[in-house]
Amino acid sequence: MSTLLEVSGVSVTFDGYKAIRNLSFRIGEAEMRAIIGPNGAGKTTFMDIVTGKTRPDEGRVIWGEKSVNLLRMNEARIAQEGIGRKFQRPTVFEDQTVHANLLMSLRNPRGSFPCLFYRPNRRDQVRVEELAEEIGLSGELHRKSGELSHGQKQWLEIGMLLAQEPRLLLVDEPAAGMTLAEREHTTDLLKEAAKTRAVVVVEHDMEFVRRLECKVTVLHEGSVLAEGSLDHVTSNPQVIEVYLGR
Amino acid sequence: MTRRPFILRNPSILIFLALLAIFTAAVTLMSEAFGTAMISTSFVKTLGKTLCLCLVALAMDLVWGYCGILSLGHFAFFGLGGYMIGMWLMYARTEIIVTESLANAAIPPTDQEIVDAIGTQIFGVVGSSDFPPIWAFAHSLPLQLLMVVLVPGLLALVFGWLAFRSRVTGVYLSILTQAMTLALSLYLFQNESGLRGNNGLSGLQNLPGVAASQAVVSVWFLWASALALGLGYLLCAWVVSGKFGSVVRGIRDDEARVRFLGYSVEGYKLFIFTLTAIIAGIAGALYYPQAGIINPGEVAPIASIYLAVWVAIGGRGRLYGAVIGAALVSLISTWFTGGLVPSVPLGFYTIDWVDWWLVLLGLSFVLVTLFAPKGIGGLFDLVSGRFAPDRHGADYGPDKGSLQEEEGRG
């Protein structure tokens, strides 16, 4: 399997604190990966680096067949390259309808002028309806997204992510604050997405990770501690000591 | 798929344009020049100026209410627009006077002599007679009209590019815009600025080569201001509708999220900032010929703060709110500061409203912010039955400029 994203030898220091130390990570196309680790292990910082929010002190982040250096790009440019990100707290545009949220996220030219003269066409309308169907919000298309429940907002954000048609999805704690039924739906959405693209899920909840049935990377103090199937890593004595043992 | 025309999708635009047309027609029919003379010419001018203030408030609402950039410098662009049109008005009018007075001379004057005489006339007050380079286009109306758009537009483009590129946001950006307008005002106060220092440009109410009386000219300007406001309203409403509007409101509420969707936030901010600066410049170019005089005091930092107060009182994030706020506050302000409101004798002290008006304005601003964040425009929600969802005190997004709970529309 060809590599989609390769992070190698990355380190970040915040005010003298080494958040990420010599981290290396790679993911192929159409692969699901879970990242677990205790608080402060550098999971969110890792996502910040890949999406361009944080600049690492050293290391390389290489993307795609053409091996583009992501560190030279800003957040918007990286998103256009095909990296979508879902935040821990559901962040949707609450003052706008579900429809507007999805329409804004659809893969279309992102410049000011194309947007100013944009007219919704048949294809985009159909796509918005399909996505709403997929995330179970067909009936809520014309409601303000601020009125949605917490779980619905999480799905809407996943829907917005899918609308971007990214090649890599970075998902930060998607199941936080969800009911059991909502979690199952979320698992299905992510598994479906991982059939056609790479998905990286950061999660605390071991049950949720188990349901994803994928390779797991354990982060600890800013570097990779173990990698492999969930059973493999959970039987690793080091992992048990730093994470599961507590 | 058929889409209803843009105007029909936004009925508030039609209502606004209809009211504006009725207002303009009514004032025309009551004016001294075209009607029953129920309204004095000076009041027609006040109303025309008010329309221009509504237009600049519209620009402020676009940049602050929709894009979340609390710019406290938009009156600088307004003033620049006024200066640009003022240069032509002064030049052309002085040219006519000078040509007439030199026409009787024994030897016909050369072009250079005429230009020198105009320079002496205009710059005599600041002890100079040479035209500074910035007056290079003042002889031509089309070129100077172009400057009305270009000068505020370019200043906003350069300033905005520097500020947004460095990701200056929130209160720091507001301070930066205040610094810009203060710097501009201080620069214009200098005699060396080439715009007659603190004398400013005057006699702007006289249109060169137009014989019509002020009564007629005042109505013309009222029409022009109403037309500009109507077109400006249409333009702003079009810009904030559709996907562009979605992105811009997204930037107001959660800038980082918009960035991760792949939109270049800086580009959008720059677009809105520059567009609103141009609208402000055009509003200024229509305002100052009606005011008759412009001086550097007009671009003082406080003017831009008033602009934000108008929009806040009228209702941020809704275009008609900005218009209502600007019209109401500036007309009431004219009324109070014009000495028309009777003083209140308290026995030990007499409240003279000319002095106390600012206190009243400040108080009402505080009260509106505390108790009616939707502003006066929010009253329309009572009629249309739209209410904000209960968000338990949460704003619509993490950014400083994002809508507050009470401002939202259900």
Molecular structure report:
The complex is a heterodimer of chains A (246) and B (410). Chain A has a domain of 169 residues: P-loop containing nucleotide triphosphate hydrolases (Rossmann fold, 3-Layer(aba) Sandwich). Chain A starts with a strand and ends with a helix. Chain A contains ten helices and ten strands. The radius of gyration of chain A is 18 Å and the shape is globular. Chain A has 246 residues and is an alpha/beta fold. In chain A, β4 and β5 form a beta hairpin. Chain A has a six-stranded mixed beta sheet with strand order 6-7-8-3-9-10, sandwiched between helices. In chain A, strands 2-1-4-5 form a four-stranded antiparallel beta sheet, with helices on one face. With 410 residues, chain B is mostly helical. Chain B has one domain. In chain B, 65% of the residues lie in helices and 2% in strands. Chain B contains 15 helices and four strands. In chain B, strands 1-2 form a two-stranded antiparallel ribbon. Chain B has a two-stranded antiparallel ribbon with strand order 3-4. In chain B, a hairpin with a 4-residue loop joins β3 and β4. In chain B, α3 runs parallel beside α8, α4 packs across α11 and α13 packs antiparallel against α14. Chain B is globular and about 85 Å long. Chains A and B meet through α2, α3 and α4 of A and α9, α10 and α11 of B. Chain B: It comes from Pseudooceanicola batsensis (strain ATCC BAA-863 / DSM 15984 / KCTC 12145 / HTCC2597) (Oceanicola batsensis). Chain B: It is found in: Cell membrane. Chain B: One of its GO terms (cellular component) is plasma membrane.
